[in-house]
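Recall the central idea of this unit: under ordinary conditions, the amino acid sequence of a chain determines the structure it adopts. In this exercise we apply that idea directly, starting from the sequence alone.
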Amino acid sequence: MNNLTLTLKPKRNAAKKIIVEMDADRLERLAANFGMFNPDFLASVKRAERDYEAGRIREIHSLRELIG
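Accordingly, the structure predicted from this sequence is:
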């Protein structure tokens, strides 16, 4: 796997947030490594968009809400 150069900076007014900077080519490579160009993933994104537009969503505040 190739190296990926990122710039990480802490956000000044937010204790738990950081800013990640990279160029578009590296972002594309990262997306490909995560499988975001996979046809199954793209189909799931399209389904999620249709669900969102139809109002079939719920707001969560933590991923722990999905476990129970």
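The chain has one domain: 7-67.
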